[in-house]
Amino acid sequence: MSRPQCPRCLRPTTHCLCALIPSLDSRTRVLLLQHPSEVNHALNTARLAALGLLNAQLVVGEVFEDLPALLNPPGYQARLLFPAEDAQPLQAYSPSDLPLLLVVPDGTWRKARKLLHLNPLLAALPRVTLAAGAVSRYRLRKAPGPGALSTVEAIVQALQVLEAPQSFEPLLRPFEALIEGQIAAMGEEVFQRNHGGD
């Protein structure tokens, strides 16, 4: 017997996050390419990001047949937010800059790399990266290394740089409520034992 689910945020209706999801406009267009294994993940942060940004689109799949169209919306230049040797650090727009279509693969690192492998057009995009040393608020998992952020955190950080001084912090409110809810459900003692210390 499954619990009733909110059709928008896909959370159980008793834990619906919709009241916390903002409606933010951005000059940047965000395209989230989500690996199918992430769709039913309890902490589906890509969905939260897509719901909270007016200029965002979430597409689920492994091979994206319509990628040429997705990567070429008129008036934008596509960049892949993914680490690489030649990735350029994001910088604030100057008034004459064409806005970015920020393409964000969503999945574990292994699944995200698989999306790039299966979609050569994606892998061929110029890459951009975030400033080093960001600390994740995602206290429920061990990050694979410094600067490993959840999808919504990476998007917020990218937009804060590109569109300064506009703040995209409100996008993190449902994410933080989600984490607090998970911690409350497992109990403080279990949380401390499993996630409290290094």
TrEMBL record:
InterPro entries: DTW, DTWD2/TAPT. Residues 2-187 form the DTW domain. Pfam families: DTW. Its EC number is 2.5.1.25. GO terms for biological process: tRNA processing. It is an enzyme of class 2 (transferase). Belongs to the TDD superfamily. DTWD2 family. This is tRNA-uridine aminocarboxypropyltransferase. It comes from Pseudomonas brenneri. The lineage of its organism: Bacteria, Pseudomonadati, Pseudomonadota, Gammaproteobacteria, Pseudomonadales.
